[in-house]
Every structure is written in C-alpha cells, then in structure tokens.
Amino acid sequence: AFFRGLTAVSRLRSRMDRLKKLKSEHGKVQLGNITVDMVLGGMRGIIGMLWETSLVDPEEGIRFRGLSIPECRKVLPTAVEGGEPLPEGLLWLLLTGKVPTKDQVDALSKELLARSTVPAHVYKVIDALPVTAHPMTQFTAGIMALQVESEFQKAYGNGLPKSKLWEPTYEDCLNLIARLPPVASYVYRRIFKDGKSIEADDSLDYAANLSHMLGFDDPRMLELMRLHVTIHADHEGGNISSHTGHLVGSALSDPYLSFASSVNGLAGPLHGLANQEALLWLKSIIQETGSDVTTDQLKDYVWKTLKSGKVVHGFGHGVLRRTDPRYLCQREFALKYLPEDPLFQLLSKLYEVVPPILTELGKVKNPWPNVDAHSGLLLNHFGLSETRYHTVLFGVSRSMGVGSQLIWDRALGLPLERPKSVTMEWLENYCKNK
Ligand code: FCX
C-alpha cells in the first residue's frame, strides 16, 4: 500500500513529466560515439538504457538512488543497533528514492510476509526435477511456476490501458519478492536436507526469515543475510540479470517471466555463478596446498589457473575499475565476525597476489576483486557450505532491483527495447567507405 499512496502517485507524475521534458527538449543531444570496438566488444561503454534505481561509477562503485554502500549502511534502518541494513529498507529506497523510517521498513516486512504464501503446485513443479538438478535450475522452475498467479498477465488480457500497467506490475513484483525466500529455501532443503522444510517465523524480517527457513538461526548469520540481500539487489541496468529482466519486461512479458529470465542470466559463470566458482577455487587451493600456503605457491596456483585457460573468478569487472565496494563491505564483515577463518585469510592473501598477475596479463581492464570473490566464504563460515547453492541467494536479492526497475519501466511507459544489429559484411562495407 505504501507505494500506491498519494505521494507516490504524484511522484510518479512528476517523474513522467521530467521524462517528457527530457525527450522534447534534449532528445537530439549526442551521448558519445559508437565505435566498431564497442559493437564487437559486447556493447561495453555504450549508454543505451534508462535505469532509475542505481548507477555504477567505475571508481566508486554502486550508488543506490545516489547512496553508496557505506552510506546505505549508515542511513538505512537495521534490526540490530549499529548492525547491517534491512533489505526491505533498500527496496523502499529503490522504489521511492527516499530513505525509509524504521516503522516504514517494519510495515514493509509485514506486507512482504503477508504476500509470501506459495501455491502448492510450485513445490510440485520443483519436485518433478531430479534432486541432482542444479539449484539455479530448480529455483527458476519455481519462479516460472509462480507465474500462473500473475496479476499483470490477467490485467493485460483484460485490456488494462498502458498508463495503468504499473499497478499489476507492482503487485506481481511485491508478490514475487515475498515468495522467493520460501521457494529458495525449499530448493535448499530439498537438495541438501532430505526435503525437511522449515516454516517461516512471523516475527522475523525478510532476510532473517530466509536464513531461518534455510536452517540457520545464528544471529551473526541473520546479519550476514541482511547484508548479502542488500548489496546484491541492484547494480545499474547493464549487467546481465538486470538487463535481461528489463529487456524481457519491455515486451510486456509479466514480472515473473522477466525475472525468471534474469535468473537464467545470473546462472552464468561470468555473472552470478562466479560466487560458486570463486569459492570452489579457494577450496581447491586449500585442498591442494593446505592452509599454510606461501605467497609463491599462491602465485603459482593463479598462473596455473590462467594457463589452463580459465579465468580467476571473483576478479575483474565489466564496468568497475577499482575494488568493488560490495567486496569491501563483506571484507569488513569478515574482519568483524570471522577474522580467523582460513578461507578468509586465504582470500586476503589473494587480494594482494591476484591483481598484479592479472595486470601482468596485459589485457584485463580491472584486476581487482568483485562481489563474488567474497560472498561464498562468508556463507560457508556459518555452515551454508553447499557452494552450488550460493547463486540462488544472489537471485533472491536481485529480485529487489529488477522488480523495482520493472515497476518504474511500466510507470514511465518505457518502450520495447530493440537495439540495431548489423552483419560483419555491413561493418566491413561501412568501414571501407569511411
Ligand atoms: N581472469 C582471467 N582473465 C580475465 C579476468 C579474470 N578475472 N577478467 C578479465 N579477463 C580477461 C577476459 O577474459 C578478456 O580476455 P580475452 O580478450 O582473451 O577474451 C580480457 O581479460 C579483457 O576482459 P575485460 O575487458 O577486462 O573484462 P570483461 O568486461 O570482458 O569481462 C568479467 C568482465 C567480469 C566477465 C571478467 O572480468 C571475468 O571473467 N571475471 C571472472 C568472472 C567473474 O568474477 N564474474 C563476476 C562479475 C560480477 F561481479 C558479477 O556479475 O557478479
């Protein structure tokens, strides 16, 4: 109800007016030159999308509605005094552009809980898959099964005008965000805990409940989950999961269809699955060399990985050119709660060893670590050691960013996304005539 109040609607109108003004007054302003390199290089550096909820600066990292991660950790309401932000607060911020009060966050926690009932057929769909199917496959199957309750699809079918489509989008996105923790924890308990699922605890906030339903009630793990869900929520529009959700949504596919597509992109090893790969790699180092590994042994291991044709997961980035602030805040968390953890100590050494080696390769644009280098070992420390599962939690969190933007996409009436592609012959001819 909070987003549908009068203030929200008037804010929406003022945003639409600004968009119209921008288009009519500045529609022809050039934003840069597109080079052949950019076309052949995965569209890197082409500004091509409006993204309301967040912006990544190559040096500073992510800002959610203008607030950096350290700022969010200061100003967003927490469950524990001086603790990690509640992701509901971030969701509020992404949706409205305003920092919520603790009361507003508590109301949103309750609203999400009230929306969290998952229809029984969803679990049947997941159960139809072999238990050995990758957790991300089971998770997306669950999301697709949730789709049958889409308000958007019904409303569109009933001819709801374009200007009102944001309303069922809002309903779907909130329902989707609310229902992911039970679906995600079902997948975990099905695969790793003999299918013994755990009921939600109505007294807990969103992230704490997710942790509880997974089977982890240590207060430090609850704090970790609040941090995890907050920092993975959004990373501007061009990353694969966000862009995919926005692209599919632009066809007026409903939020479930759009977000299932996001999650499929997240399941790629160069994107979200990198957290699984990064932790498996850390574990493989310890397995091969023991935990008292020397710097020289580490350098050898990194070179061996690179020479075998693999990338070093958890390092590098498409946009960032410094250490990812999402890595840094997880490092701070580790220094506070688990400084002696052997995997954390190993990663701290790698933080020094890997960047100079990647720089030496001469082609890597950003040798510094990203979010995925760190997240797995934190979860592992508190007992969530099933590495193949970790990207599912990234997915739960990403629903907040993709969902918030989808609501704004429909509210602003953003059009079908349809960039132009060309053939190699077209490019060759074009360049010849230049
Ligand atoms: N290890 C080895 N090689 C790397 C590398 C790494 N960590 N990072 C980049 N490179 C290589 C690229 O593979 C590319 O080589 P090529 O020209 O032979 O194909 C070259 O360096 C230039 O790539 P660059 O422009 O720096 O990076 P891109 O924008 O193309 O790719 C990713 C960015 C993130 C995909 C890349 O750095 C990578 O593969 N990193 C490891 C995987 C990873 O951690 N992904 C998670 C990223 C993120 F945080 C997320 O989405 O979750």
From TrEMBL:
Keywords, in A-Z order: Transferase
Picking any one GO molecular function of the record gives: acyltransferase activity, acyl groups converted into alkyl on transfer
Q: Does the keyword Transferase apply?
A: yes
Point out the coiled-coil segments of this chain: none
Highest taxon of source: Eukaryota
Active-site residues? H271, H317, D372
Which family does the record assign?
Answer: Belongs to the citrate synthase family.
Q: What is this protein called?
A: Citrate synthase
